[in-house]
Amino acid sequence: MNSARKQKMTIVFFILFGSAVTVGLILFALNEGINVFFTPTEIAEGKVPAGQNIRIGGMVKEGSLVSDGLEGTSIEFITTDTNADVKVAFTGVLPDLFREGQGVVAEGVVDADGVFQANQILAKHDENYMSAEVKAAMDAAKKKQAAEVTAQ
Amino acid sequence: MIPELGNFAVMLALCLAVLQVIIPMVGSYTNNTLWMSLARPLSSGLWVFMVLSFSCLAYSFLHDDFSVAYIARNSNTLLPVYYKFAAVWGAHEGSLLLWILILSTWGYAVSLLSRNLPLDMLARVLSVMGMITAGFLVFLLFTSNPFDRLLLNTPSEGTDLNPLLQDFGLTVHPPFLYMGYVGFSVAFSFAIAALLTGRLDAAWARWTRPWTNAAWAFLTVGIALGSWWAYYELGWGGWWFWDPVENVSFMPWLVGTALIHSLAVTEKRGVFKSWTVLLAIAAFSLSLLGAFIVRSGLITSVHAFAVDPERGLVLLALLLLIIGSSLFLYALRAPVVSGTSNYGGYSREVFLLINNIILVVATATILLGTLYPLITEALYGEANKYSVGPPYFNIVFLPLMSLLAVCLSFGTFTRWKKTSPALLWQKVGKLAFVSIALGIVIPLIVTAEVNMGAMFALVLAIWIVLCIGKDILDKTANKADRLSGLRGLGLSYYGMQLAHFGFAVVICGICLTSNYSVEEDVRMAKGESITIGKYEFRFEGVVERPGPNYTANSATIQVMKNGENYLTMHPEKRFYSARGDVQTEADIQVGFFRDLFTALGDPRGDDEWVVRIHVKPFVFWIWFGAFLMAAGGVTAILDRRYRSRKVVRSDIPATDANGSLRPALES
Amino acid sequence: MQISNRTKLFIPAIFFLVMSGLLLYGLGQDPSRVISALINRPLPTFSRPDLFDDAKTITSEQMRGGIFLVNVWATWCPPCHAEHPYLLEISQRESGVTFVGVNYKDDVKAAREFLAERGNPFKLSLVDLDGSLGIDLGMSGPPETFVVDKTGTIRYRHVGVIDNKVWAEVFVPLIAQIQ
Q1: What global pTM score does this model have?
Q2: Subunits with at least 3 CB pairs below 8 A relative to chain A?
Q3: Are A92 and C129 a contacting pair, CB within 8 Å?
């Protein structure tokens, strides 16, 4: 094998090896970094895999924010898509844009009691007050209710 | 009257831009010197009218002309004067006007500073810049005109600038960012002109380099300012969120870095030509893609301008036109490299190629992560089901950057064409061991505990710095005295080392702050305190305080260091009356070696408040390092060889690297 | 398979076309728009003091049997100032709809003065001092207008200023539809 051929093979080997490592890394990273979004209705129906880090979103139910009787910086509130309610528990500082009657997205885990233990609250949204995910959730709930009404 | 003047100026600018597209380009193909030389005055005129229209908008803002719809939506009589000026680019239409102003400014700069450019090349470069400008002017005039009026029943008061934007950071961040984004249009235009002309040579690379460096330096500062602003203003102590809008500003930067290095290779060795042209097209394309994503409503983010999809469609069409045609031009006209490589395994070419590949792969993975939700929606039909969070980006990006940091120093020691591995090892082998030793020992001594992440990052940073030192020593070793040796090294070399040094500082800043920050969210009553390291934070209660266009709850926190009174901090929560918005104003005590960060949360119970207290070591180094990188980029531009000189025949080697006569275009 | 070197150069262009297709698809999706949890639900039951006479109470029962436009406003809200002349003009012009003003979290005296000076487009004016009615309506901030039909059901929630353009494009067709 002459030197030029050897060099070419080395290059090909490195490219293949590098690609395999990179692709593997990306797949692993996607697995770790992807958040699946669920609506309160889906959580109430038990569609959420236990213990998995997920996102939920809905409207913060008016008057549901409580901090009394809880330790430290813990708070609880209820998020709803008008069809089902989910209790959310969170410890920490709420973002400025968090408000009752507005959309919210939270990241965390549904615990054994069906309470969503949030490790992050996102009230980031554009000027239209509701994120696309929350809007989709509300739409789906509305359709469901309309279907139930016509079924009766 | 003034808004009409501004509107008219924009229309005139469009006319000039169209002329700038047609006349010089036709002139370059028909060899008409007069037509080609019209490129310069046309771009000057274009710039003048853009300055005029921008001034009209600014004037209207400063005089509270709420008959202009854009001003009514983004300003208020109570808004402080300097924010009224910054509000010009506070939302979509005005920021688009700024974008185009900056585009025309770069064009004007090219026309002024390119005395040594052959006329046909200059004509084509300015013509391409004119095409981009004209495209955006059409977009502005027909879909996003900031001068639209509300003439019937003019409101007596405006809705106010979004409080999130009422901050110094956001008054400087967009201008710098746009200077960077838009600056890549110059490299892009040079690339297109080269493809059209068929002349892709060392001289072309040398002309393009200073413009690319300048744009890159601006973009570096712009991104750093954005990160610093988020840290300062959003009240959470975070400084990078892998938010889609952050990602789209970062991708052009990564590709721009690859471009800078690739241009160096093309200039010195005449290879990588296709790569370099493609990178130049890609850098600007990513800037355009960024502008599109932020303004189309496609991806929701705290940053995104709320713009309707209709405008997004027009913008996408513009993108398709500019990027699509340039990529097809590239496919048809770029030089095809065939045959075996003529550089050795450990040559500088190889290391810079690795550099390019790493940066491009990093960009591709960030692009994948950013567009992934859209991809899954298209493939599986479930809207907004999947989102990609920071873990993805960190897992992919950090290893790549680590590899880059290792290769960086090797690259500076290698020689062009061929380097023996033994020689390389002899130079840097010892340094590698020293870096590893220091990187492990220093954190152990200072913190008395093992932290893998911090140690690894420190090893890399020390490795880079030691190699910089060694290289400077080596290069001045043979001179009569060191000082004259240092002088002889040239600004281009110093720019490189400064930028690389800045990179090491950023690595330190990011990794040390990520690993050693202490963050506490606590519920405190008056008189309570918490201790973090040598600092004690005592909460002294909250009072109400009025502001110019808000009322605030202002907290007092007494900080003690090593038991003695050190300083007082006043984080606030502000209520802006016009929009009913709430805003957290963190109080940050900035230090070179650590930041103290306090923010006020919500009231709890009777007299208790949730308070956020962070001690963040070395976070300042992140932005300081970025500034050093930008300074390095600017220093390199100032090098003697970019000063005006006539085009000399010997600049363009008659033979290419293979030793055969260079044709104008290989097919 | 040997791909010619020239062909390889087309890869970026093709990649870009595919990505544009993706972006085009993304644009075609439904944009997030403002919705209300209360659309097609009955107006919440409430009773609040009249703005001009604290002894009198205004209740949700009074908003039946016609088309009511419940406008939430405040003197501290600049866009409400901008909207006011339009509301005045529209209320005088359109006899088929009744404007109801909800003064939200405001200074009652200032509100009365405002309407006295600039004209009053509202047939009924009530005070929501603590903002609880606003919360019940699911609103985010003034100015917002709720369209209530003859059966007392909320049919639409408009966030932001109503000017002549918005009236013609949004409200006129809606009102015609719910007659």
Answers
A1: 0.81
A2: B, C
A3: no
Decide if B388 and A95 are in contact by the 8 Å CB cutoff.
Answer: no
Query: Side chain identity at C92, as an amino acid letter?
Result: Q
The contacts of residue B57 (CB under 8 Å, 6+ apart) are B3, B6, B68, B70, B88, B94, B97, B146, B147
Phi and psi angles of residue C147, each rounded to the nearest 5 degrees, phi first: -95, 120
| Sequence-distant (≥ 6) Cβ neighbours of residue B393 within 8 angstroms | A29, A33, B242, B247, B365, B366, B369
**At A59, is the secondary structure helix, strand, or coil?**
strand
How far from B402 is each of B30, B251, B463, B535, B610, CA to CA, in Å?
52, 18, 11, 33, 38
Find tokens 């340039």 and name the residue: B326
Check B298 against C27: CB less than 8 A apart.
yes
Q: Please state the ipTM of this predicted complex.
A: 0.78
**B329-383 pLDDT, tens digit each:** 999 988 876 544 567 777 888 889 889 999 999 999 999 999 888 888 788 766 5
CA C4 to chain centre: 61
Among residues B575, B611, B609, the alpha carbon closest in space to that of B596 is found at: B611
Hey, CA dihedral for B49, B51, B52, B58, is it positive or negative? positive
- Quick one: how far is CA B545 from the chain centroid? 37
Maximum distance among all alpha carbons in chain A? 82
DSSP of B414-458: SPSS---HHHHHHHHHHHHHHHHHHHHHHHHHHHSS--HHHHHHH
pLDDT tens per residue, range B240-270: 988 888 999 999 999 999 999 999 999 888 8
Size of interface A-C (CB pairs under 8 A): 33
Q: Residue B560 above 70 pLDDT?
A: yes
Tokens of C169: 């494009």
Quick check: C154 and C40 in contact, CB under 8 A? yes
* Residue pairs spanning A and B at CB distance below 8 A: 110
User: Chain A neighbours among B 570-629 (CB < 8 Å)?
Assistant: 573, 581-584, 599, 601-602, 604-605, 610, 612
Nearest 5°: the CA angle B276, B279, B283 is: 145
Bridge partners (DSSP) of residue B564 are: B561
Taking alpha carbons only, the member of B329, B346, B495 closest to residue B419 is B346
Residue B553 CB coordination number (10 Å): 18
What span, in angstroms and rounded, lies between the C-alpha atoms of A114 and A86? 8
- Name B629's bridge partners: none
CB-CB neighbors (< 8 A) of A102 in chain C: 140
